Amino acid sequence: MPKHVRKGDMVIVTSGSFKGEIGSVMRVIPEDDRVVVKGVNMRTKHIKPSRVGQGGIITREEPIHISKVSPVVDGKPTRVRFETREDGSKIRVAVRNGQELGVIHGPRTSTAGGAGMPVAPRRAIPAKKVAKAAGSKVASSKTASSKTASSKTASSKTDSSKTDSSKAGGSKSAKSSKKTEKKAASKGSK
């Protein structure tokens, strides 16, 4: 769903501790429904010195929820309406005075079956992807059998290395197991 504000829009904060402040949108974070507005929600961060850079105290803008901001028209907040023009382009319009706020997408060129409704042009799927999708089932069964065979040989190699090190008595794990046996024996005798 399209958002009512975009990067570069002048917005006013409508609620919260920054109510009434005006600034431009620096960044929109659609995953969290948040926006970063220039000069609003300034936070102080203390940075520890490191090899890369010098430490210090930095003040920067933090995100606020997108529902707390509205575009500004004539110094007042306004809601946004989405309109589709005759040529198929979609625009954002201010409800307050009908002013155009921005274009979401340009005109559409093709129509679907003469119905008169604009349709986005279809993108062709490359032949490589089609062949890859068709052959993926066969390839996956081959790779699965080769993976199990390689894992069996790898596990047998690790088992043999464990037995060799325990025979030698020089590994750390063998020494630590002997120590734990001695501790357990001393506790049992008490």
Structure description:
With 190 residues, the chain is α+β, with helices and mostly antiparallel strands. The chain has a domain at 10-119: SH3 type barrels (Roll). Helices cover 32% and strands 30% of the residues. It contains two helices and 13 strands; from the N terminus they run βββββββββββββαα. The protein has helices spanning 127-168, 172-189, and strands at 10-13, 22-29, 34-37, 42-47, 56-61, 64-65, 69-73, 76-77, 80-84, 90-94, 100-105, 110-111, 118-119. The chain has a six-stranded antiparallel beta sheet with strand order 6-3-2-1-7-8, with no helix packed on it. Strands 9-10-11 form a three-stranded antiparallel beta sheet, with no helix packed on it. A hairpin with a 2-residue loop joins strand 7 (69-73) and strand 8. The longest helix has 42 residues, at 127-168. It is flat, with a radius of gyration of 33 Å. The protein starts with 9 loop residues before the first strand and ends with a helix.
Helix content: 25-40%
By CATH, the architecture of the domain at 10-119 is named Roll
Instruction: State the strand order across the main sheet.
Output: 6-3-2-1-7-8
Termini separation comes to: 73 Å
- The low-confidence parts are none
Number of helices: 2
Q: What structural category characterises the helix and strand content?
A: alpha+beta
Name the average pLDDT. Answer: 75
The biggest sheet amounts to: 6 strands, antiparallel
- Topology, number of strands: 13
State the shape. Answer: flat
CATH class of the domain at 10-119: Mainly Beta
CATH-assigned fold name of the domain at 10-119? SH3 type barrels
Strand content: 25-35%
Helix and strand succession?
Answer: EEEEEEEEEEEEEHH
What is the gyration radius calculated from CA atoms?
33 Å
